Predict the 3D structure of the following.
Amino acid sequence: MTPDPITMRPIGVIRSPFRATQGMPIQTVAAAAAEGELEVLEEFAPGLRDIEGFEYLILLTHLHQATEKLEVVPFMDTVGHGVFATRAPARPNRIGLSIVRLLALQGRVLRFAGNDMLDGTPVLDIKPYVPLLDVRATERIGWFAQGLQRLPSTLADDRMK
């Protein structure tokens, strides 16, 4: 049995200097100095109450310019993997996850660092990052064990189109 489709609506939109995927950072940790803004829609502004108490936020986004694939060659590797074993943007439902550092809240605009998102990216949800709840120590990280060495110098290209 196939479940019914799910409909979501954005709660806001990313304002970013990145206008194209090619050449942009591929992970927030590699983009610590890259700033961006999340403009929350007016109807969702009350949900921002008390958010200034958090240093980091998890942004769940819709990767609006990505394609949907089940197998990809990720940016940090040269061989293909099943998309669920990667963090590639080309995936079913095109859901993105970015952990960003909150710099300021100005009205209903969150200014943040660690931007790895395109201008105009729809934001689906915001969650506070809480290390005790979100960090897990592990040594088993699959193909990333070799791929992470490439992160500091790897930028997005057009392979996810």
Summary: Residues 56 and 154 are 23 Å apart (CA to CA).
